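S1.2 Input.
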Amino acid sequence: MKYPFSIMVASLVLILSAPVHAALSVVTTTEDLASIARSIGGDRITVTSLTRGSADPHFAVAKPSMIRRVYSADLLVLVGAEIEVGWLPALLKSARNSKVLPGNAGYLDLSEHVTLKGAISGPIDRSMGDVHARGNPHYWLDPYNGIKMATAIKNRLGELDTENKPYYETRLDQFNEALLIKLKDWQARMAPLSGMPVIAYHTSFIYLAEAFDFRIVDEVEPRPGISPSAAALGKLVEHIRQDHIELLIMEPWYERRSSQWLQEQTGIKVAVIPQSVNSQAGIEDYFSLFDTIVLEMTETRSSNRN
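S1.3 Output.
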């Protein structure tokens, strides 16, 4: 059956003018959150991270490109627990996007969906170092918290985009299943470190230690964010020798002189481990982050290098 040209034109106009479901624009403060968001949102969302995985998320600087991203975002996902306190409030003020302000549906603080460790009661001052009153913010380094984070993201995406809620739920199930399978492998490979005393450079790895059953017994920094003095390093040498501590772990952005000196004095092995997705080549998602952490810790511990 042939239709008049005018009817065909009218039908085409209706098709072109019909509303198209636009992907939700999700902005995260770190690459780790972006990776989890992509796993849950799939092709129903677009995701960008405000910071690079190779940078310390405490010390980002608000840039015009970051302001533009937040301005157009439907959902802002943050680590919280004050890790972004030095730059995110100013960024939100400049972006002028009411959807992603605290208290609104487009603002998701994931620290409210996990159990934080190391909360501080009472007054806090700078002499205590870089501490966080609500608790240690590096909770994404426990894969079990990865499941809680993914669940919170799924729930919020479902609220903002009810049409695709079943899709997000299916993606969450797939993410959780894959993560639990990987977790069994990671724990098996880390089993030789079970109960082992470890020194960390900074107070970043308490969640990682709990997930994989090793013990952080000291830090290179005498207080969080405070560089060690010669006297503090001397005490560490005594501790390492007395308790036969074999391994020191640290993030790549901290100075290496202190750990190298401790290694020279005691023979302790130093594992420089990534803390975030995209912090180095090959770490493209949340799963490969832990693949690399486990590989570096186990290989360093079993190596003969001094």
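S1.4 Remarks. Strands lie at 24-28, 45-49, 75-78, 107-109, 197-200, 215-219, 247-250, 269-272.
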